[in-house]
């Protein structure tokens, strides 16, 4: 790790800089796969599944028999954990339901918002070594609560053409309508354009490698909304002399194991804590199965000693982390100062893993400083707030003249006329 | 206009198809301007202002003297209209304030959302013949209510280096921090990267021509969030025998005058109403100053006669219009059936102009069928909902085992360990 003591504010820009990710170099490759899928549908998806996932597929849809097989393969312990996590995620996202109320902005003019679910959404769940069934819960649970009519999930099969059973169990628990064996760019294309098997959706959610991200960005230019741009996962821990060094080290390592590009950032006001965490990281690292990955990620991690709490929070806000753990005893006061972060974990017991899996908050969060402008996935991500308005005759009296005057001054005479024709019907001018 | 009577559902896809807008052809040109602005800041902005707006600028920032001059130039009548519109827009968007409440998802686990304003936002207001001061109100008012610390506005000057005074008055009324003379791609680049004069912002809002749209899309791939993708403006009017043909025709024309690519769509259950509206359009068109534009747009407009109300609303939802006017007497019942639309106007008095200017709803809305997945600008557009969580010792007991079990099954051992280390401190397993 890089240990930096009392950096000046001028040095901050270097400390918080993320590695550049430029997926535009991939655009040519990704575009050609997308075009193939648009033109040839299922045939193209099957071709790329063979090429990239080495799976020969006859049908793309998961069958009821495969669902039942998955239920048998997943242990009762894991099933119970999935059900518990789903319950908490559902509870937190149900509490985000929007209550509409009408506002009379002036006499005779009523305006309101109504939250309406996006009819068709697509969830992408990557394959690979770590089967992210937790992400199935994080995306499908709010989609179901929002009332999305069609919830489509694509995930790549293994060489035997099988999908990880925990993904299928999580999909059933959370209420996914249709699961398909498709990964990578071909899955994103299939959900953006629709194929014979895979329905077109209006918004695509979920993580993926750089090809998947590039595909999501490309389809978002024309056809389909996406949840948010993404980069490597990140944690920032703010610690002081009251923090538990063992816990802090464990939290930093849990981020470091994600991948060699994971971002691990420690900010502390205590030189002694800095020393203790550094030692604990070494101790705990030795015992980890993914220690090579964690070690590489730690080599790029940054541990910063700052003068006081105010500086700690300013630096954290400048960094704008995906996950922020405030591991101090007076976390409540510091929490008030958070301006830029995806999800914030307060106190010594709130480890990032809690929110990654089962506390109820969403783990699909803005990385790569996107927290400056984006929030994580929540119930709103699956809804649109449509505005409605009703005017009575009195409403024309209230705003008619102002509307006509503004329209004339914008040189939009027909806009003015649409109001004036109503005013004259009511004898107003 | 194209009049289509009782089309089959198979024909709908053709009726609702929008003109293709492919800004990717512009990407090379737009990219090179963006790169210049990134590299050369104010000098590049000044260079392109001279090239595209034929304005020689020394300073880009609007001065206090220019603000005062604008106040003198705008009539009292228009000022009063701007103040009235601002008051209604503020009232509607203030009512969208988010109230945070803590949710105990299970014993000892508390989760909540907090709405925090994006610190720096940029508003783009196009120049040209129609000075869109109304859009200043629509963007700056909610930005101010959200609490954005810096609200930057860029708008192109005319050949004399002047900005339309109504734009400046609206900016002052709505609380814009800084106004700059910059238009087009160079303005978007300046706000995305920052220059010596123009601050970098985290999210850019506002309409523009295809170059501006392409620039917004390109910066959104890397640096800066944007409000939404955009296409030509649209209205869909649903009318029956109870509608007022004069009003309906006026509403269709107010959309048609926007530009030759404006989309005008009438759905009616009454053949007589179809006839009457067609006649009224001709009568009213003759009196419009922008009749050439409106005529061209009307040539591409579509008037559809359908069998019944249910079919009318199904077709409207398939079209997913930016603006939907339900001009029937039983609008309340039909409003319940709206699934895809940006903003909905109910009853004979609620003309689109009302919402375009002064009723209080926002007029920055999803066009081009983006209403399938996006909503218009609202207070949330200027905020992020950051999630927070706190766990007590009891919380570790509630979810600790589930978290460790799920993490192990995702082969993320350090994630499991971060929870287990806490469980063992509490003597839990």
From TrEMBL, chains A, B:
Its cofactor is Zn(2+). NAD(+) binds at residues 124, 186, 209. InterPro entries: Ald_DH/histidinol_DH, Histidinol_DH_CS, Histidinol_DH_monofunct, Hstdl_DH. Pathway: Amino-acid biosynthesis; L-histidine biosynthesis; L-histidine from 5-phospho-alpha-D-ribose 1-diphosphate: step 9/9. The active site is at residues 322-323. Substrate binds at residues 233, 255, 258, 323, 356, 410, 415. Zn(2+) binds at residues 255, 258, 356, 415. It is an enzyme of class 1 (oxidoreductase). One of its GO terms (molecular function) is histidinol dehydrogenase activity. Its EC number is 1.1.1.23. It catalyses: L-histidinol + 2 NAD(+) + H2O = L-histidine + 2 NADH + 3 H(+). Binds 1 zinc ion per subunit. Keywords: Amino-acid biosynthesis, Histidine biosynthesis, Metal-binding, NAD, Oxidoreductase, Zinc. NCBIfam families: hisD (TIGR00069). Catalyzes the sequential NAD-dependent oxidations of L-histidinol to L-histidinaldehyde and then to L-histidine. Belongs to the histidinol dehydrogenase family. This is Histidinol dehydrogenase. It comes from Hallella faecis. The gene is hisD.
């Amino acid at each position: 790790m890089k240990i930096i003591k009392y950096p000046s504010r001028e040095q901050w820009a270097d400390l918080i800089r993320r590695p550049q990710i430029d997926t535009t170099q991939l655009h040519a490759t990704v575009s050609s796969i997308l075009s193939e899928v648009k033109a040839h549908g299922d045939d193209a998806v099957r071709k790329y599944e063979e090429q990239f996932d080495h799976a020969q597929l006859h049908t793309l849809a998961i069958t009821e028999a495969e669902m039942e097989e998955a239920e048998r393969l997943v242990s009762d312990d894991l099933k119970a954990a999935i059900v518990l996590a789903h319950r908490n995620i559902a509870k937190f996202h149900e509490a985000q339901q929007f209550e509409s109320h009408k506002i009379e902005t002036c006499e005779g003019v009523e305006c309101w918002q109504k939250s309406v679910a996006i009819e068709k959404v697509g969830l992408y769940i990557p394959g690979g070594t770590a089967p992210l069934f937790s992400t199935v819960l994080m995306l499908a649970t709010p989609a179901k609560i929002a009332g999305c009519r069609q919830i489509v999930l694509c995930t790549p099969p293994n060489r035997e053409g099988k999908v990880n059973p925990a993904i299928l169990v999580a999909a059933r628990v959370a209420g996914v309508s249709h699961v398909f064996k498709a990964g990578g760019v071909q899955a994103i294309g299939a959900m953006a354009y629709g194929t014979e098997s895979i329905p077109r959706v209006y918004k695509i959610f979920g993580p993926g490698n750089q090809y998947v991200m590039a595909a999501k960005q490309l389809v978002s230019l024309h056809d389909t909304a996406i949840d948010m741009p993404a980069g490597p996962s990140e944690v920032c821990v703010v610690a002081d002399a009251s923090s538990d060094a063992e816990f802090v080290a464990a939290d930093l390592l849990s981020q470091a194991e994600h991948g060699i590009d994971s971002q691990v950032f420690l900010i502390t006001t205590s030189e002694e804590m800095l020393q203790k965490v550094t030692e604990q990281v070494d101790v705990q690292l030795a015992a980890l199965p993914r220690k090579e990955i964690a070690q590489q990620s730690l080599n790029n991690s940054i541990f910063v000693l700052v003068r006081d709490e105010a500086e700690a929070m300013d630096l954290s806000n400048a960094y704008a982390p995906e996950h922020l753990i405030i591991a101090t005893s007076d976390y409540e006061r510091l929490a008030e100062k958070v301006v830029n972060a995806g999800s914030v974990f307060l106190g010594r017991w709130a480890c990032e893993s809690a929110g990654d899996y089962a506390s109820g908050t969403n783990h699909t969060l803005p990385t790569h400083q996107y927290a400056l402008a984006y929030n994580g996935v929540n119930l709103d991500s699956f809804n649109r707030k449509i505005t409605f308005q009703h005017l009575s005759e009195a409403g024309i009296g209230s705003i008619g003249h102002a509307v006509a005057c503004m329209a004339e001054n914008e040189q939009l005479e027909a806009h003015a006329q649409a109001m004036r024709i109503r005013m004259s019907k009511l004898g107003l001018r």
